[in-house]
Write a structure and sequence with these properties.
mainly alpha; 8 helices; globular
Length: about 190
C-alpha cells in the first residue's frame, strides 16, 4: 500500500548506507588486513607442515612490508586500525624468523628482530590506549617485546640502542618488567 512506499530522492532510491560504508577507506583497510591475516594463517600452516618453498618465504617477506604499508593509509597514528596492522607486522616478522639461519644472514636476522621490536613497542602503546593495561593482547605483546629484547641483548645490543637510546641495563630492566607484567596479566585469565 501507499504507507509502504519508499521516498525517492532526486527521482531515485537513495544509496544504501551499508553500500556507502563499504566504499570508505576504513572499510578497504579492514578488508586488506583481513585478507593478509588469512594469508598469514595459510603460510604458517604451510611452514609448520613441512619444508616451505623459497617462493613462500618471498610472499611472507612481501607481507611484512604490506602490513605497515596498509597502516600508512590511516591518517591518525593512534587510530585503532593500527592495532591489527602492527599485530600483523609483528606476527609476520616472527614468521620470517622461523626460517632457519642458513637462509638468512645474521645482519638480516638482527634487522628483522629490530623491526619486530619497534613495531611491537608501537603496538603496545596503542593496545594500552584502546584496550587498557589488563587485556590479554597486551600481555602477548609484552612477551613478544621481552623475547625480542632478550634475543638482541644476547646478540647485538646496538640494534636495541638504535630503536631507543636506552642503555644495556635499561633494556635488561625493561625485559624483566615486561615478563613480570605478562605473568601478572596472564594470571588474570587463568
Amino acid at each position: 500500500g501507499p504507507h509502504l512506499k519508499m521516498e525517492l530522492w532526486q527521482g531515485s532510491l537513495p544509496k544504501s548506507s551499508l553500500q556507502a560504508a563499504e566504499d570508505t577507506v576504513t572499510k578497504q583497510i579492514e578488508s586488506a588486513i583481513e585478507d593478509l591475516e588469512h594469508l598469514r594463517t595459510e603460510y604458517l600452516q604451510d611452514i609448520v607442515q613441512g619444508t616451505p618453498s623459497a617462493e613462500l618465504w618471498e610472499h611472507v617477506k612481501a607481507m611484512e612490508g604490506s602490513a605497515l604499508e596498509i597502516g600508512h593509509q590511516i591518517a591518525s597514528p593512534q587510530h585503532i586500525l593500527w592495532i591489527p596492522c602492527r599485530t600483523l607486522h609483528v606476527e609476520t616478522c616472527q614468521l620470517l624468523l622461523l626460517r632457519n639461519a642458513q637462509h638468512m644472514t645474521t645482519a638480516v636476522q638482527l634487522k628483522l628482530w629490530s623491526r619486530c621490536i619497534d613495531s611491537a613497542c608501537q603496538l603496545l602503546a596503542l593496545q594500552r590506549m584502546h584496550l587498557g593495561s589488563h587485556h590479554f593482547d597486551v600481555a602477548k605483546t609484552l612477551l613478544d617485546i621481552a623475547n625480542g629484547v632478550s634475543e638482541l641483548l644476547s646478540r647485538s645490543p646496538q640494534h636495541l640502542y638504535d630503536i631507543n637510546a636506552r642503555s644495556f641495563a635499561e633494556w635488561k630492566a625493561l625485559e624483566r618488567e615486561y615478563r613480570e607484567e605478562y605473568k601478572r596479566i596472564k594470571a588474570l585469565y587463568e
